[in-house]
Request: fold
Amino acid sequence: MPFGLLKYGLRRRYPARRDVPVATELKPSYDVVIIGGGGHGLAAAYYLAKNHGITNVAILEKGYLAGGNTARNTAIIRSNYLTPEGVRFYDESVRMYQDLSQELDYNILYSERGHLTLAHTDGAMRTSRWRAEVNKHLGVKSELIYPDEIARVCPQLNLSSEVRYPIMGALHHYPGAIARHDAVAWGYAANAARRGVEIHQQTEVTGILKDGDRVTGVETTRGVVSCGKVLQAVAGHSSVMAEMAGFKLPIRTIPLQACVSQPLKPFLDAIIVSGSLHVYVSQSDRGELVMGGSTDPYTLYSTRSTLDFKEGLMGHMLELFPFLSEVRLLRQWAGIADMTPDFSPVMGLTPIENYYVDAGWGTWGFKATPVSGKRMAETVATGEVPDILDPFRLDRFDTFEQVGERGAASVGH
Amino acid sequence: MRIMHCPLNGPRNISEFVYGGEVTEMPDPATASDAEWADHVFLENNRRGIVREWWLHVATAYWFIAERDTATDKVIQTYPSSDIYTERVSFTVPEEEGGRS
Reply:
């Protein structure tokens, strides 16, 4: 290896490293077609190839690689949820994330910061205590802490009682982390491509070909492709895709906005979240404050930003960190989120035999990327739903067995 | 600030309104199967395009209908719900199930 580096250094020209090869023509047929080239689709392709030896796989992406919600989230990784089903599922994801840079040989800049969910009301204190107990019971390190301890963990926070919503306590989730979201997608893409998976960008699926209750192929803007199985992973347009396939989802598509400030010297280590104030903020490795709030008040398939959102967010931000009043915003954006009635995802089987769905990722999709990829790959390869995904099945709504996840971001307590 | 035209109050700020979901037809609760009822309560058409929706003007507690393009956020038209609901909807419980409260 040292000589490899030397040889590279002595070269006249430096060939650019290409992680994702340019895909050529579409083949007429694949074993598995994955619709959607975001984090979840790419991860599923990687685990299909690695764990199940299925490499005749095409990922069809209508835009560019990881250009949807994978690029638009606020990169927070945590497992301090409320329901045992949710905690178990997201905990597996956090554990996978912790080793992901090594596994993919791709630096995802995983940065463990600790995560504080602030409580400003008696109701929020109760929920925090509840979440801490459920977490600890399942081996996830979360603790309810009070203002004296909060001041030690995050001395920058305004803990004064002379504000509209004083901080009464916080749920301290020690493994809470952030990572470079694009690198997660690129790492999965590079490793999937190395194992033979084809990634076709600028290839939109325009129809699903069916024979009775089975899918036989997909129509795309570049021609028809036949396939053995289909996995849909198209956060934001899940309902549109499902309608093409012929079933309905319990999803409303609602924009979620976010923004970043100009870069500042590192001052904020912990990730700070307040459900009651609809604020979450962390400082990225570039020094920018990454901020988000609640989802928009109504459904929309557009990624526009609004002044209403920023006014509301900044009002609360300045209550938590008054000294940021002179800081400017640098960028703003929105992603369109699949909101489900119980704030849990929809994963697994569909009314169509060989068509699998990975949807309903609302405001909690990025943190679930590794576990969703691994478990959806398992579902597609074996045709059987693993126990850990069973609570999130589509037909839970028919049997009134929802998983009410009030630990999700954007949910007030 | 976006403006919405309320059929009762005229043009008002969008922040005065609350979204109430798509206008759908309710199956008869007395005869619907669990699956039909779950479909009505939980499953969504969630179409991208022009959709007929319920909206509420909060300050006057007035529910009305808006036709809105969910791709562009343009409101095409708004009108009172009496334009499409011309008959009274009855919620009576059939005799044999009476007494269950």
